[in-house]
From TrEMBL:
It comes from the Bacteria. It holds the Pfam family Peptidase_S9. This is Acyl-peptide hydrolase. PROSITE patterns: PRO_ENDOPEP_SER. This enzyme catalyzes the hydrolysis of the N-terminal peptide bond of an N-acetylated peptide to generate an N-acetylated amino acid and a peptide with a free N-terminus. It preferentially cleaves off Ac-Ala, Ac-Met and Ac-Ser. Also, involved in the degradation of oxidized and glycated proteins. Residues 390-592 form the Peptidase S9 prolyl oligopeptidase catalytic domain. InterPro entries: 6-blade_b-propeller_TolB-like, AB_hydrolase_fold, Pept_S9_AS, Peptidase_S9_cat, Peptidase_S9A. Keywords: Acetylation, Hydrolase.
Length: 594
């Protein structure tokens, strides 16, 4: 379909700019995929034009500006295998590798206050455990501070530079903070580990007398808190009835920049250090993934993506009436369809949140076909983000419903717990409720409703087409889990403990996990399916997709299988995205549009 191919090329030609991070000299680093995959770019402090600073086929995962000069550190893996290696980028010139062990995952942490060291985690000692380490930038020498059990992150340094702050993450809704001394290499708890609460994003006073953080202790939502001393309960400062997702302290420590998740839409606020709102930034409705203070403390830069525009960079200057856009790699194509917030009733009387996007014009006779898109996670949230694949699908005359079924984040801890363990089938029942809500409206065609999801969302798709086979006209599964037993046997060992806390223990809950495995019910699938898989995926390895494809082929159920040798858990390279999106578009044109 040449028209579809042309529309897709137009959409993919609109690159995104994301993840801004200021360096000490005022230059702004960020990621931009104008060259086909996300690479490091910079906006010079003197206002000159943006320029690329890296050029690789594989995407860069993050970039962080130095607090000491105009340099940065970034990380990238090989072909999506998630074994991230760190690179030091000087203010001018080429990057040099800080790590070069392709077997090891290096998790980014933070710069030391003087910019001479960086903290990271590494699982070279044991793939299942991420130890805290420090790297000296001048020579690349790495020092392991401690041997720990399980997954950890390094979100900050103590302001005196003599300790790093270690964050535990044994499960999705629990994180505790510890302080690890560089000398003596001893760990001591900073937060009270007396419950399954989240203590996140610590930002210290310069004198070390306490720190701001995000916390949900005794609350349904994350709020801004301050902790005066080690081992004390944090004191809440700012507690909207929504999750506060980002927190950064101004260089002079007189203001806090925070991002609040308001029904999936991000909103930037400036607070004083006591938590009082000073400014609510005026900016377009969309999704913010990163905020960063300008070194002079006069402004906050942030990225912003919307359903009708890829990521762009914005600046909110203190006291300004509204934020202004400071970089866009390209303007968005014309005629894109926006998302509206909706809700639909489900089996237990709840109204579930969702986004709905409609094709242009009036519905055809009999109504529009619909694609229900299910997010992964499950501890995640579908957001009103830039999605060229969904815009392509809308251009085919297919409506799109994006639900946040029970178990999604962004609506409180209690909502996120509604699908835990033996309650997991209830989230699949929510998909049947979404179908019923669509089918009850004349503008949609009940007989042409398909379903699509990725990762855990792929498991949701496979569960829907096996538990509710009569409902779905077509299914698309991106690297979904077909059988929990084989998933736990083959997923990256560093993920097993954390995933077991969410899904169930692979030994103790083996019987439950077998019941929840769509592979055992594959004989119920009657709709055509498209399955797509990155072959270096360490999270949901290819075996999961291969099993469900073989089961369908054995029964002669129509199935298309697309594989990508140089992609992991997601399709990040533009040529690969073009191939898989075009495959999806042609598949839906045949099976939903007809």
């Amino acid at each position: 379909m040449s028209d579809l191919s042309s529309r897709l090329d137009t959409l993919l030609a609109a690159p995104a700019a994301t993840a801004p991070s200021y360096a000490a000299d005022g230059r702004l680093y960020f990621l931009c995929d104008a060259g086909g995959s996300a690479q490091v770019w910079e906006l010079p402090a003197d206002g000159g034009p943006a320029r690329p600073r890296s050029a690789h086929r594989d995407a860069v995962a993050f970039v962080a500006g130095s607090p000491a000069d105009g340099g940065a550190v970034f990380g990238r893996d090989q072909a999506g295998d998630e074994r991230v290696q760190l690179h030091a980028l000087p203010p001018d010139g080429d990057a040099r590798a800080l790590t070069s062990d392709p077997r090891t995952i290096h998790g980014w942490g933070a710069f030391s206050p003087d910019g001479r060291f960086v903290a990271c985690t590494a699982n070279d000692r044991d793939p299942a455990h991420t130890d805290p380490c420090v790297i000296e930038l001048a020579n690349g020498r790495m020092t392991r501070l401690l041997e720990v059990q399980g997954p950890h992150e390094l979100p900050a340094w103590h302001p005196d530079g003599r300790a790093v702050i270690l964050s535990t993450a044994p499960e999705s809704f629990r994180s505790d903070l510890l302080q690890v001394l560089l000398e003596g290499r001893q760990a001591a708890p900073l937060t009270l580990a007396d419950g399954a609460w989240r203590h996140m994003n610590p930002r210290f006073r310069k004198d070390g007398s306490g720190f701001w953080l995000l916390c949900d202790r005794e609350r349904d939502f994350l709020g801004v808190a301050f902790q005066e001393a080690t081992g004390e309960a944090p004191r809440f400062l700012f507690t909207p009835e929504a999750d506060v997702e980002k927190l950064e302290v101004s260089p002079d420590q007189t203001r806090l920049a925070v991002v609040v998740n308001e029904g999936g839409f991000s909103r930037l606020y400036l607070l004083d250090v006591a938590g009082e709102v000073l400014e609510r930034s005026t900016h377009p409705a969309g999704v913010i993934t990163k905020i960063t203070w300008r070194p002079d403390g006069g402004a906050v830069a942030f990225d912003l993506a919307r359903p009708t525009h890829p990521g762009t960079l914005w600046l909110h200057e203190a006291g300004a009436a509204e934020a202004r856009r400071i970089f866009a790699a390209a303007e968005a194509p014309e005629g894109l369809r926006d998302w509206a917030t909706v809700s639909f009733p489900t089996f237990d009387g709840r109204d579930l949140p969702a986004f709905l996007a409609l094709p242009a014009g009036e519905p055809p006779e009999g109504g529009w076909p619909v694609l229900v898109w299910v997010h992964g996670g499950p501890a995640a949230q579908a957001l009103p983000n830039w999605r060229p694949d969904l815009q392509m699908i809308l251009s085919l005359g297919i409506a799109v419903l994006v639900p946040n079924v029970r178990g999604s984040t962004g609506y409180g801890r209690a909502y996120a717990a509604l699908d835990d363990r033996e309650k997991r089938p209830d989230s699949v029942r929510d998909l049947a409720a979404a179908h019923a809500w669509l089918a009850a409206q004349d503008r949609f065609d009940e007989a042409r409703i398909g379903i699509m999801g990725q990762s855990y969302g792929g498991w949701m798709v496979l569960s829907a087409v096996t538990e509710q086979p009569q409902l779905w006209a077509a299914g698309i599964d991106y690297y979904g889990i077909a059988r929990w037993k084989t998933f736990f046997e083959k997923t990256g060992p560093w993920r097993i403990g954390h995933r077991a806390a969410e899904y169930g223990d692979p030994v103790r809950d083996a019987a439950l996990l077998e019941t929840l495995s769509p592979l055992h019910k594959a004989d119920r699938i009657i709709c055509p399916m498209l399955v797509a898989q990155g072959m270096t995926d360490p999270r949901v390895p290819p075996h999961e997709s291969q099993q469900i494809v073989e089961a369908m082929r054995h029964r002669n159920v129509p199935v298309e299988y697309m594989t990508f040798a140089d992609e992991g858990h997601g399709f990040l390279k533009r040529d690969n995205r073009r191939a898989v999106y075009l495959g999806v578009g042609n598949f839906l044109a045949r099976h939903l549009v007809g």
